[in-house]
Amino acid sequence: MAINNTSYVVFIGERGQIVIPKEARDIFDINPGDTLLILGDEEQGIAVVKADVMKEVAVKILKGLGHFKGGFDDEK
Question: Which of 3, 36, 47, 72 lies 20 to 30 A from 10 at CA?
Answer without folding.
Answer: 3
